[in-house]
Specification:
The chain contains 14 helices and 27 strands. It is α/β, with parallel strands linked by helices. The strands form six sheets. It has an eleven-stranded mixed beta sheet with strand order 1-2-3-5-4-6-7-10-11-12-13, with helices on both faces. Strands 14, 15, 20, 23 and 26 form a five-stranded antiparallel beta sheet that branches.
Length: about 550
């Protein structure tokens, strides 16, 4: 049904909700006015279960109403009306690309439970996945559509793009997903260990839901086991495996919001044409500006240009654009020096896992250790404890060594209490003992006993300079990152191995225009000093090739 832009009184409540949620999944409302010289319609569209969704459609002025155009679609909880008109959430995209003037139609589907859409948010569950399918298939079937739809988004609406990848609705021709959620569980937990938002985010998203629905979903979200039926419905890594929908993905190694846990397993499982930017940035879009050398929060300036090549290739069936897209490297990856380079895959094919025997010992699961002095949480006004646990340090490196992939710690453990925390960190140790965090990971050991445990850490692309050391710390917490519940029990590490994916061949060719981001500078300034005697006493030979 086509209708006029009338708004009910609860919109003010919805806007207040979005303000709360912004703390958790930030909504970057771009500056500037609604795109000029455009025509706007609104529609009531039923989802697959009959829930009515509010969909806005925007086209360049003068476009015949029945002219078929490819459709760029955002499906989001954040696209509430603004000042009587549609959301400006992605105005920056259209300002940067000129997509409306280049013959694209823009559609905005507000998800169930938000704005004028009916129903109850189920936070990435079957209902919201139905909404994505229904919105895509509706947009593809309209007379003003050429039948090809791209899903565009960042953060939550990056997640809805991946819902499209998993469900593959008719008409879905491409997905652009920036800093998405890959798995609803992993956004709130890390193998049973909570993030701070595991309580606040569910509360925020359920504020507008009917009370019975809100209680049901909130209760289910407090289950800290990833294998529950609730969480399995929201796990998109396996659900998307083999999807052949063309994907353009962006993921920051230094993400503090939609963290890179699961990002690279997701990437490897996608079967269709795909391309990614992985780099030293946080929860940003490729078009976000910052006061830095490149002027962009991702450290380079051509994201918008590449998006349009991608869209022209797969929504307009432009053979020249498709060839230009396929000629680009599959991955653009930024290392810790700010340099971008192209790779045919990531981790690269020559990333050889080098296994080193590292130190065992005993640590106390006391919740005191911080992985770095600053992070996602504030240390309550006290100086954070750093370096508490079992250290291992490599010899000074005989030359540069380049880590590209996800480190793993292979541990033989004797655990004395249920729900024990085990945390691993990899550090870059400068000659003066300054420690910079490279990668981290955490798991909960649910039952006591003797066990072999593999702890996978976050992926990184990091060059350790000649003369530096690689440091590995096994501990009970990174209190700036996770909300640990310490058991105060001793944990014996009987035997331990560090598996580090190191490039076999040095990289010497880099793209022009790659620069350090402000986020990378901030990360590199969050260091602490390991005392020289600690390094000397805990040095052990590392296999670094």
């Amino acid at each position: 049904m086509h209708r006029n832009a009338t708004r009910p009184s609860f919109v003010a409540m919805a806007l207040a909700l979005v303000a709360m949620v912004a703390v958790l999944l930030p909504v970057a409302t771009p500056a500037g006015a609604q795109p000029e010289d455009t025509t706007h319609w609104e529609f009531d569209v039923p989802s697959l279960d009959g829930t009515i969704l509010d969909i806005d459609v925007i086209r360049a002025d003068g476009t015949p109403e029945d002219e078929p155009q490819p459709v760029i679609l955002v499906v989001s909880p954040y696209t509430l009306p603004e000042n009587g008109g549609p959301s400006t959430r992605f105005d920056d995209f259209f300002e940067a690309t000129g997509a409306l003037e280049q013959g694209y139609t823009y559609a905005i589907a507000t998800m169930r439970g938000f704005g004028q859409s009916e129903g109850c948010s189920d936070w990435g569950g079957p209902g919201e996945q139905m909404d994505v399918v229904a919105a895509v298939e509706w947009a593809a079937s309209q007379e003003w559509s050429n039948g090809n739809v791209a899903l565009l988004g960042k953060s939550y609406d990056g997640w809805t793009g991946l819902m499209g990848m998993a469900n593959q609705p008719d008409g879905l021709a491409a997905v652009i997903s920036q800093e998405p959620v890959f798995d609803g569980y992993r956004y709130l937990y890390d193998d049973g260990i909570r993030f701070a938002n595991s309580l606040v985010t569910p509360t925020s998203f359920m504020t507008l839901s009917p009370p019975t629905c809100a209680v049901e979903y909130y209760t289910a979200q407090q289950d800290d086991r990833a294998d529950s039926a609730f969480w399995q419905q929201r796990e998109l890594i396996n659900a998307s495996r083999g999807s052949d929908v063309p994907l353009f993905l962006m993921q920051g190694f230094l993400e503090r919001n939609t963290k890179p846990d699961g990002a690279f397993a997701y990437w490897e499982g996608i079967g269709g044409p795909k391309r990614a930017w992985f780099g030293q940035f946080d929860h940003v879009r490729g078009t976000d500006a910052e006061n830095s050398e490149s002027g962009h929060a991702v450290g380079r300036a051509d994201w918008a240009e590449q998006m349009m090549i991608f869209l022209d290739a797969y929504l307009k069936d432009d053979a020249a654009a498709e060839q230009a897209w396929l000629d680009l490297p599959q991955v653009e990856v930024q290392d810790n020096l700010g340099r971008y380079r192209g790779e045919d895959s990531w981790p690269p094919a020559d990333a050889v896992v080098r296994t080193s025997t590292i130190n065992g010992g005993v640590y106390t699961d006391n919740g005191l250790n911080f992985g770095s002095p600053t992070g996602a949480l504030v240390s309550l006004g006290t100086a954070p404890v750093t370096g508490d646990g079992i250290w291992s340090f490599s010899q000074p490196l005989p030359g540069d060594r380049h880590l590209a992939g996800e480190p793993v710690l292979d541990l033989d453990l004797a655990v004395t209490a249920p729900r024990t925390n085990v945390v691993g960190n990899v550090y870059d140790i400068a000659p003066d003992g300054t420690a910079t965090l490279v990668s981290r990971g955490a798991d909960m050991i649910r039952l006591p006993g003797l066990m072999r445990h593999r702890l996978q850490m976050y992926g990184q692309d990091w060059v350790f300079a000649e003369g530096h050391r690689i440091g590995v710390l096994i501990s009970g917490s990174n209190a700036e990152w996770w909300v640990h519940q310490p058991t105060q029990s001793p944990v014996a590490v009987i035997e331990a191995f560090a598996e580090l994916p190191l490039l076999d061949s040095p990289r010497t060719e880099f793209d022009a225009g790659g620069f350090q981001t402000n986020r990378l500078r901030q990360h590199n300034s969050s260091t602490f000093t390991v005392p020289a005697p600690v390094i000397t006493l805990n040095e052990t030979p590392f296999n670094v090739g």
